[in-house]
User: Fold DoxX family protein from Edaphobacter paludis.
Amino acid sequence: MSRKAKNIAYWITTALVAFFIGSGGVAQVARVQGTVDGFVHILGYPLYFVTILGVWKVLGAIAILVPRFPRLKEWAYAGIFFDLTGAAASSASVGVFGAYGFHILAPLIIAGLTVASWALRPQSRTIGVLFPATSDRPV
Assistant:
């Protein structure tokens, strides 16, 4: 993949993740009725947990968008991934699948976008090289 194509793919996946996570976080902080009902009455989480997750989601969306702070980005990507896989697991554990498994598939698809965004990051947005180039020199 060319550098330009990789950069475009990175920004598309990152924008999508930031939008999904950020908008969900805002809905949780604002305690939008449908969001609160899903968390509290269907999944059984306490109301204060909805607010905590909402604040973390908004901060995570901001963290993956802003320049610099590579370690913060690592934590944000991890937190977003854990949140999304936990959402899918929570829905599956209480038997709330939604139409065509939406409540399980949607978070897993966004988790996949999160992994893609993380993997496509430019070097300037990483802590270091994950897989350093190997040389033919003996160690």
About this structure: The CA atoms of residues 38 and 44 lie 8 Å apart. The chain is about 70% helix and 0% strand. The longest helix spans residues 3-29. The mean pLDDT is 90.
